[in-house]
Amino acid sequence: MRKESESMKQQIQRTEEEWRKLLSPEQYYVLRAKGTERPFRNEFDDHFAEGLYSCAACGEELFSSETKFQSGCGWPAFYAAKAGENVNLFEDYSHGMTRTEVTCASCGSHLGHVFDDAPSTPTGQRYCINSVSLKFTPSQEGSAY
């Protein structure tokens, strides 16, 4: 698992006050306070248009629609990050369980968690990501994203 000190990205530095001004209250709760949005009632759970999903806080490209799948968990699910170095993974012992937290490597924002419970995917992984943590950019016809 990649540790924070191993990330080669220069991390965006902002005060929490600056983040509060840049993000909606729900985005701040999830991205900065490590909250979770409600399952099945979010923007990208059933969204399967072609394009890129970026960090809602800083714009870093995180996931491609090519790796998105319907997992039934209630949140957008991906079997791989677009570029592995764009996310960091950390052990998360909150809420009385052990999970692997996924954060944006550029700004440190909380995105969700990754689980090794997706046998129908090429990687066996399920990146379970909060919709509010993402911004979607549709692909342009004829362009590679």
TrEMBL record:
It catalyses: L-methionyl-[protein] + [thioredoxin]-disulfide + H2O = L-methionyl-(R)-S-oxide-[protein] + [thioredoxin]-dithiol. InterPro entries: Met_Sox_Rdtase_MsrB (IPR028427), Met_Sox_Rdtase_MsrB_dom (IPR002579), Mss4-like_sf (IPR011057). GO terms for biological process: protein repair; response to oxidative stress. Binds 1 zinc ion per subunit. The zinc ion is important for the structural integrity of the protein. It is an enzyme of class 1 (oxidoreductase). One of its GO terms (cellular component) is cytoplasm. Its cofactor is Zn(2+). Pfam families: SelR (PF01641). It comes from the Bacteria. GO terms for molecular function: peptide-methionine (R)-S-oxide reductase activity; zinc ion binding. Keywords: Metal-binding, Oxidoreductase, Zinc. Zn(2+) binds at residues 55, 58, 104, 107. Residues 16-139 form the MsrB domain. The active site is at residue 128. Its EC number is 1.8.4.12. NCBIfam families: peptide-methionine (R)-S-oxide reductase MsrB. Belongs to the MsrB Met sulfoxide reductase family. This is Peptide methionine sulfoxide reductase MsrB.
